[in-house]
C-alpha cells in the first residue's frame, strides 16, 4: 500500500522536478516559430511580441542562435505576432490561432531595411502538429455555430471520426463502451463516477471550443480508454460583447411519421395490433417550445480581468412518443434553466487565474429504464449537474511554469414511478417471452455522485544532452462518492412466462420479494503521477515518451475495501517530418491506458444493497411457493482487492498533411485489444444460495481495428468543411458496461418452455448458453462503414450576410441477433431458480439492418446595424430528405421450431422477429428549428 502524501507535500515535491505546467486542465497552447532573413539565414536576437487580439494581454520572447523562439502556456485565442530587429523592417502576423494543447509554429521572414512600414505575414492555424500526434478533433465556436447541430457539446462528439452516429452523448469511441469516456469542463472531470457516462449538461452558448481525443494520448491523460472530451468555455475580452437568442420548435411544423408497427404486417398478428392499429403516425402537437438564451462578456479591468456569463431557459414538450408494445402515446415536458459564470484574470503577462461555476438542472424526463413495454413501466426523472473550479498558471523565467487547479463536481438524479397500476400493487412484470417489462416502474429512488479534484504541475523547457527537451510531470488527486437508494416499484418483481398488456393476464413463473431498501454510499480515491518528455531524436524525428502511475482505492458503503489497484501506463508517440517544414508527417503511437474502475463496481459490494437481496417464490401451477432467500449483497459478494483495472493495448500509425494555413488531410490506422476485462461469475453454493465472485475474466475478449480518412478546412475565406470516413470492426464476446452473463451457472441447466428445439426438449447446459460459440461476434455498436461531412459557406448580398450549411452521415446500421430468454434451473432439479440467461441462435451480430443516412441543412441571414452589432435569423432543417428508415429492432426474441402451433409464443416470436414496433425505432421525420438573434 502506498502512503498518501498530503496536497501540500505533493505540491512541494512537484516543484522540485522538471515538468510542464499544463496537464489535463490545460486551457493553453504553445506559440513558437523561426525567424529568418531574406536569404534563409537564421536571425538571433529578434524581439518577438504576441498580443491577444481579444484580451490585449502580451507575451514576449527573443530568438536564440538558430532564430527560434517559444512561448509556452499561452492562453487560447487569436494573436498578433510582431518581430523587431534593428536594421530590419518590422514583420507582423495577425490572427494566429492558439488552440488547446497544440503548438502554433510560425515561419517569419524579415527584410533588411529601416522603413516604418510593417511586413504582413500570413497567419497560422495548427491543423497538423508534430508535437501532438493524438487522434483528436477540434470544434470551435466560429465553426459549429454555423452548422445544423444539436445544442449540446454531446452532439459535437458525434461529428468526429471513430464515433458512429451523429447523435453524440455516451458514445462508443473506437470500439470502447459508453462507460469508458471522460468528460472535462475546463479541465473539471464531470464524468459520472458510478457509470462512466456524462455527468452534466452545459449551457451551449458558453462553449468556446470542444477538443475531442480518441487515441494516441499523452501520459497526462488517464482513467479512460474511450474518448476524452475537453469543453472549453468562453472568458470575455476587452470589449463588451454578448448575444441574445430566441429559439423555437413546434411539432406541428414537422413532418408526419410515415412508418408502421411491423408486428401488424405478420401472418398472424396478435390481438393488440388489431386493437391498436398498425400506423405509427402521431397526433401533432401545435405548441411552440421556446429557448431564451443570453450571454454577456467584457472587461472588469481592461487588459487584466474579464468576465463572461451565460443564461438559458428551455421548456420543451416533445413530440408524441409511443411505447414499443402497447403503443400508448405520451409526451415529455422538460424545463432546463442553465447558467454559467466565469472570471479570468491576467494580472501580469506571466501570471493568470480563473474561476468558474456552472449549474445545469433538467426536470421532467420520462425514461425507458429496463426495456419497458408500456407506459406504466416507464420512469420519471429529474437531474442536476454542477461544478465549481479555479486555476492558477504562472511562468517563472524563460523556461519554468507552474499550475494549480481545484474543482468540485456534483451530480444528483431523482427517479420516481411514472404511474400507478392496479395490478399486483404496480410491481413490474418481466416477460420471459419477449424480454419486456410491464405494469410497474423498473426504478424508484435517487443517486448522488459528487467528485472532488486537485491537480498541480510544474515545467521546464531546456536544452541538455544535445537535445531540446519539453518535460512534463503532474500530480492528480480525485475523491468520489456514489450514493444511492434503488428499489422496484412496490419492492417486488414478477417473472412471467408471458404477459398480455390488453387483458392484463399473465402466465406466472416466479416472483421476487426484495428486502426493504435503505440508502448507501460508497467511496473512492484515485491519485496519479505522470512524467513525459518531448524531444527530437533527429532533426526530423520528433518523439514523446511518457509514463503514468495511478493508484485507485475504493470502499463499500460500510467501509469495506473493494478496490486496491496500482497501474503503470507507458506512452510513446513519434512523428517524422518528411519535408522538414512540419507539414507532412508520418505519425505513430503506442499506449497502454487503464480504465478507472467505476464506482458502480464498489456499489456491487454494498453491505446495504440496492435491488439485490430477495426471497424467491416459484409458481407451482396454482400458487407462489416460497423458496430460497437469494443474497447478492450484504457482504455475500467476496471482495477481490487483487482485481486489475481493464486496459487496452493501442497502436496507431498514419500520415498527416497540412495544405496552406487552414487545411489538412490524413489517414490513420488504429488497433486496440482489451485486457483484464472485469466480470462476475455466478454459480450456486451447496445450500442452494448464489455464489458470486468478481474476477478479471480471462475468456472475455474485445478488440477493435479501424482506418480513418480525414479532411479538415478551418473557417477562413468564407468557408469551412470537415469530412471523415471510418472503416472499422469490433469483435469479441464481452461488450457490457456492467457485469455480463459470461461464465455464469456453469453447473446448471437452462430451460425454455417456448422452443423445444433448443438443446434437448428445450434444455441446454447453461455453460453453452452463456459461453457458447455464438457469444462471439459483433456488438450492436459495430458500424463497419461511417462517412460524415459538414460544410458551410458565407456570402453577402448587399448589407446582408448569408451562411448556408449542410451536415450529413452515411453509415452501416444496427446489428442484432435472434435469441430467447431461458430459465436457469436449480442444480440437479427441474425447478426454476428465478435467474435467467439469454441463448443466441446465431453468432452475435449475425443480422444487420440496411445502411442508413441522414442529411441536415441550415441558413442564417444577418444584418450589421452598428460596428460589431448585428441582428439575424437562422433556420435549420433536420432530416432534410424525410428519410424514415428503421434504426432499431425492438423484437429480437426468436424460436427455431418451424412447426410451432398458430398463436403459440414460439409462432408469435418467429413472426415478430426483427420487427420495429414504435416511432423511436425509426429515424424521426423532418423537423425544424428557427432562431432570431442579436450579437454584439
Secondary-structure blueprint:
Elements: H1 7-15, E1 28-37, E2 47-52, E3 58-62, E4 68-75, E5 77-84, E6 91-98, E7 103-110, E8 119-121, E9 135-140, H2 141-144, H3 153-157, E10 182-185, E11 188-189, E12 207-215, E13 228-233, E14 241-250, H4 271-276, E15 288-301, E16 305-317, E17 321-322, E18 329-330, E19 333-348, E20 351-367, E21 379-396, E22 400-417, E23 429-431, E24 437-438, E25 444-448, E26 451-464, E27 467-487, E28 492-499, E29 506-514, E30 520-538, E31 541-555, E32 561-577, E33 584-591, H5 599-603, E34 614-619, E35 624-630, E36 647-659, E37 663-675, E38 678-684, E39 690-696, E40 702-716, E41 719-732, E42 749-751, E43 763-765, H6 766-771, E44 785-797, E45 800-811, E46 815-816, E47 819-825, E48 832-840, E49 847-848, E50 852-866, E51 869-878, H7 905-912, E52 927-935
Parallel strand pairs: 1-7, 6-8, 10-13, 23-28
Antiparallel strand pairs: 1-4, 2-3, 2-5, 5-6, 9-12, 10-11, 12-13, 14-15, 14-52, 15-16, 16-19, 17-18, 19-20, 20-21, 21-22, 22-25, 22-26, 23-24, 25-27, 26-27, 27-30, 28-29, 29-34, 30-31, 31-32, 32-33, 33-36, 34-35, 36-37, 37-40, 38-39, 40-41, 41-44, 42-43, 42-47, 44-45, 45-50, 46-49, 47-48, 50-51, ...
Report on the structure:
With 936 residues, the chain is mainly beta. It has 3 domains: 22-121, Immunoglobulin-like, CATH 2.60.40.10; 135-233, TonB-dependent receptor, plug domain (Ferric Hydroxamate Uptake Protein, Chain A, domain 1); 253-345 and 357-386 and 393-935, Maltoporin, Chain A (Beta Barrel), CATH 2.40.170. Helix content is 5%, strand content 51%. It is built from 7 helices and 52 strands. It has a 23-stranded antiparallel β-sheet that branches. It has a 6-stranded mixed β-sheet with strand order 24-23-28-29-34-35, with no helix packed on it. A hairpin with a 5-residue loop joins strand 2 and strand 3 (58-62). The chain starts with 6 loop residues before the first helix and ends with a strand.
